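Course assignment 3, question 2. Fill in each field.
Student: A.L.
Task: Predict the tertiary structure for the chain below.
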Amino acid sequence: MPDANPFSLRGKVVVQFGGTGHLGRALVSALASAGATLVVASRNRESLTALAASEQAGGRAVQVDEVDIGSESSLLALRDRLLAQHGRIDGIVFNAVSRPMKSFDDDLAAWKSSMDTNATGFFATVRAFGDAMAAKGSGSIVNIASQMGMIGMNPFLYEGTTMGASPDYFFHKGGMINLTRHLASHYGSKGVRVNVVSPGGIYNPDKPQAHAFLERYGKMTMLGRMANAPEIGGAVVFLLSDASTYVTGANLAVDGGYTAK
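Answer field:
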């Protein structure tokens, strides 16, 4: 039964694409803790097994399934399996990303490769699952973009470090934000909401960013620091929940005020 708490995801079947990375794991925990029946889909089922077991041990409903985002037939097969198993799909979170391009001067093959997941795969995913939700008259799609889809690169942040920013990432995340607006318009009359969350930089304690970068980045935000991965989950839960039933086509920046300065 649905939870009386409008911020709860209890009773909702949610599919998350991309769950093994630093942010992905935090989102899995947030969605499962909010009560969702969560399916985490990946090309490598084995890489998700330990994550699902950890969540299940805490009493949270998480299952894993296989999908190749680069294959429309694989996406449609996953959708049909889940509809057969659960009878409905209430929401999806598109957090999958491919980052083969490492610098501005990379071979164009890397740029083309990134398109398979970040452009074509993204659209194929939201269309396949958006159409299924539209058929039943309700649903919520949450896409995970980045503040880098809203602004240009700041070279100052990277000076004196080995870090950098690849152009394809800016292109894909900017495109995701505007395609979200188009999708919200396309699906709105069918009861499906489509929104995007744009996180700022996220600190990774397992792979810490360069000290100089962290110091400079902190000064660019209103809160004086990078985000921690669990701080992104609340925005995603909100947009999937019944607390946001009149929110669609929105880009919610979770960036500590970086883009507001």
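Instructor remarks: The longest strand covers residues 192-199. The chain has one domain: 13-260.
Grade: pending
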